[in-house]
Amino acid sequence: MEALASSYAKLRTPLSRVGPWAPTFLRVVLGLTMFWHGYKKFDDGLGVYEDFFRSIGIPAAAIMTPITAVLEVVGGLAILAGVATRVFSLLFIVQLLVAVIKAKYGRDIGYIGSGTAGAELDWTLIAGFFMLAVGGPGPFSADAQLGLERKERSSVGV
Questions:
Q1: Alpha helices in 18-59 (DSSP H)
Q2: Which of the ends of the chain has fewer CB neighbours closer than 10 A, N or C?
Q3: Is residue 15 helix, strand or coil?
């Protein structure tokens, strides 16, 4: 057991040095993912997604489609930069939970879809946004630079 603890300590030390970068890495991946999803909605044409929203029972699909696309583009860029990170993370968690309930489980796609992405991507994104909502954007963010968040090390995962 002592050898295992010693090996773990040798691994933990260098990883702890890069720990403050962990939320930044998470923000970049999540921010670009959401930005791309929103951009794709505009690029393909909002009508395509409005029809889809309507088909899965999203109320006021004509209003919710552009709201969703704008949230994904603006929120994705905000997450990327670390602006209002906790707020946008919570908004994305709500959006993704609706996606899981209405678009995945509501259509019997489940966790791993057959021929399409299942809910595993949504749950992974939710987990990442939960980490940002709880742990914050990290020291290398606009929120930290503006004094809205601590500039010191993140308390989540390090």
A1: 22-44, 46-55
A2: N
A3: helix
How many Cβ atoms are within 10 Å of 64's Cβ, its own excluded? 18
Q: Are 46 and 61 in contact (CB under 8 A)?
A: no
105-149 pLDDT tens trace: 766 666 665 656 678 889 999 999 999 999 999 999 999 999 998
Looking at residue 150, its amino acid is R
Other C-beta atoms closer than 10 Å to the C-beta of 111 total: 12
Residue entry with tokens 């989540």: 156
Contact present, 141 and 85 (Cβ < 8 Å): yes
pTM of the model: 0.85
The C-alpha angle 44, 49, 42, rounded to 5 degrees, equals 35
Instruction: Dig out the tokens for 147 from the structure.
Output: 């004094």
Question: What is the C-alpha end-to-end distance of the chain, expressed in Å?
Answer: 23
